[in-house]
Specification:
Blueprint lengths: L2 H5 L23 H6 L9 H12 L4 H8 L3 H10 L9 H11 L5 H8 L3 H12 L4 H11 L20
Helix pairs in contact: 3-4, 4-5, 5-8, 6-7, 6-8
């Protein structure tokens, strides 16, 4: 008996539905309205930042989120950083190199070569190193995307830190 004999007569009768990530929005305002409060500190409008966040958290890349919001990819990356998302193109060693560059211990050319990044990635890494996320904006995004742990269907799949001991 071969594999084709075993699979004979097997057919798919239903389709799987993509339900996305279970989220609970505990706010009455839209994300764009909440981000309007900090729009002066963002590199784009609150509405554009909300579009970037929604597309990015929906599984899109920074570039796709930027295209959807009609902003430059660098602007989208900066907005995501200010909203608390980790978008740094360098790892720990690269961050040390960027810190040395910012302290004046390395030239831009040497720092970029040591970090092994492009000009655009270097510019983003410097921006990330010199700008802290905005607490109010971070809170607006976290509230919009917070998962209710009591009704979270994936809660039992997550381990606690005590499970590691």
């Amino acid at each position: 008996m071969g594999l084709s004999d075993i699979a004979a007569g097997v057919e798919v009768t239903t389709e799987q539905r993509d339900r996305g990530v279970a989220t609970v929005d505990r706010t009455e305002q839209s994300l764009a309205e909440r981000l309007d409060a900090v729009a002066d500190e963002l590199p784009c409008t609150g509405e554009a930042a909300a579009t970037v966040v929604e597309r990015y958290t929906g599984g899109g890349s920074v570039g796709a989120a930027a295209r959807t919001a009609a902003v430059a990819p660098m602007t989208a990356a900066k907005a995501l950083h200010l909203l608390g998302e980790s978008v740094s193109p360098v790892g720990p060693t690269g961050r040390d190199v960027i810190d040395d560059y910012l302290a004046g211990e390395l030239s831009r050319t040497d720092a970029r070569q040591l970090a092994r990044v492009s000009e655009t990635e270097f510019a983003l890494a410097v921006y990330v190193a010199t700008h802290d996320p905005l607490p109010d904006a971070r809170a607006a995004v976290e509230d919009a995307l917070a998962v209710d742990t009591e009704t979270d269907p994936l809660a039992e799949t997550r381990s606690e830190t005590t499970d590691l001991l």
